[in-house]
Amino acid sequence: MKSPHRFFALLSKLVTYVVLIGFATIMLFPFIFMFSTSFKTQRDTFRYPPRLLPREQLTATVPGYPEPLPLYYVTVEGQLQEYALVESNIRMGVYTDPDHPDVTYTLPLDEIQPTGGVENQRIVLYNNTQELLWDVPVDGHVVPMVLINQTAFGRFADPASPCDSVLQNVRLSEPVEKLTIHPGNYAEVTELQGLDRSLTNTVLVTILVMVGQLATSIVGGYALARLQFPGREQLFIIYLGTIMIPFVVLVTPLYQFMVLIGWVDKLVSLILPWIFTAYGTFLMRQFFITIPKEIEEAALLDGASHLQILTKIFIPASVPALATLATFTFLYAWNSFFWPLVVINTGNRANHVLTLSLSILRGRAADNVNLVMAGAAIAILPPMIVYILAQRFFVESATSSGLKG
């Protein structure tokens, strides 16, 4: 009786894992595609059908040609061979015998002569249409045929023996490739848009905003949670109500204030206005409230000041909440785009952050998708790493009551 139950339990777990892995793959695929594209060549990014892994076409040195030529797979005597493309865009004609339209022959246009000569070329009725006849050599005989289509072929030659060549459609030919990566894309995009300076600015702004918000949120949260003063609750409600004000309403007055004090086009305008946060103050206040008052009262009886209680009791006990707030602040400051776009001139590359540089790069390197993806990877990797390292604090923050038993 237990065996069927165990089987269905294992089957249920297996189905659950398969479904979760499927959804995880779907969610992660855009990031995987972005990182793989950032290591591709420009030509590889536009190939069809697209491939996930970066590949590079192999080349070979052919005697008589100054530069290496691309290699393709061609069929020679029923076997696939690696031949070099020595000539492209050879105009080819597709001919058929009007009496046997199911058989076609593909030959170079310049090798076929008109039936009856140029001035007296013969005409035949084919598919209810009058068509010109052409002398097509077939097995040592000349057969009058009609031209039904035109295409372009390439001439492929054996790299070891260039005299051995075949004609084949280049578009339908499979190139000889190998898996490869081009980490130089990251250096190229850095030089193209100065992402090294933008990255430094972004790190500086993010760290200062994060430290500033942690400091103001800790002090404000402790004051609103533990200190008694007139109007505390009313002040907290008003301060918390600022969260409801849309950012677009604040842009114009905030920008005018930056103009008034001369901070436009300077990095300080990306830092100081954002070190105060009602959300962070609310988060720390709610966490500090969960800490038993008995611990604080005992510390006061021992002669500890409020500053000592805050630094030695409250802050160590609120590490999960601080890590959560730091992570949210980091992601917000790192990905901030609208305010830097408003207050920093696009021509001032020295004070650009990554979001601004990527916006300009999207226009400058529109035909180089690999470079755009490399720039996006530079911007995405740090917050991804921070989130992965800090995610355990989210669970601890949700389950912690402020103290560990």
Task: Describe the structure in your own words.
The protein is built from 13 helices and 12 strands. It is an alpha+beta fold and 405 residues long. The chain folds into 3 domains: 54 residues, no CATH class; 124 residues, no CATH class; 215 residues, MetI-like (MetI-like fold). Strands 2, 3, 4, 5, 6, 7, 8, 9, 10 and 11 form a 10-stranded antiparallel β-sheet that branches. A two-stranded antiparallel sheet has the order 1-12. Helix 3 crosses helix 13 and helix 5 crosses helix 7. The longest helix is centred in the N-terminal third of the chain and has 36 residues.
Helices and strands, with pairings:
Elements (H helix, E strand, L loop, with lengths): L1 H36 L4 H4 L9 E3 L1 E2 L8 E8 L2 E19 L2 E9 L4 E2 L8 E4 L2 E10 L2 E18 L2 E8 L5 E2 L1 E3 L4 H10 L1 H32 L5 H10 L5 H15 L16 H12 L3 H9 L4 H12 L1 H17 L2 H6 L10 H11 L4 H31 L6
Antiparallel strand pairs: 1-12, 2-3, 3-4, 3-11, 4-5, 4-9, 6-8, 7-8, 8-9, 9-10
Helix pairs in contact: 3-13, 4-7, 4-10, 5-7, 10-13, 12-13
Q: Mean pLDDT, as a whole number?
A: 86
Order of helices and strands: HHEEEEEEEEEEEEHHHHHHHHHHH
The CATH class designation of the largest domain is Mainly Alpha
Query: What is the approximate shape?
Result: elongated
Low-confidence stretches: 401-405
| CATH third-tier fold name of the largest domain | MetI-like fold
- Strand residue content: 15-25%
Secondary structure class reads alpha+beta
Instruction: Count the E strands.
Output: 12
Fraction of residues in helix: 40-55%
Radius of gyration: 35 Å
The CATH fourth-level homologous superfamily of the largest domain: MetI-like
| Helical run tally | 13
Largest sheet: number of strands, sense, barrel closure = 10 strands, antiparallel
**Known CATH architecture of the largest domain:** Orthogonal Bundle
Number of domains: 3
First CA to last CA: what distance?
Answer: 43 Å
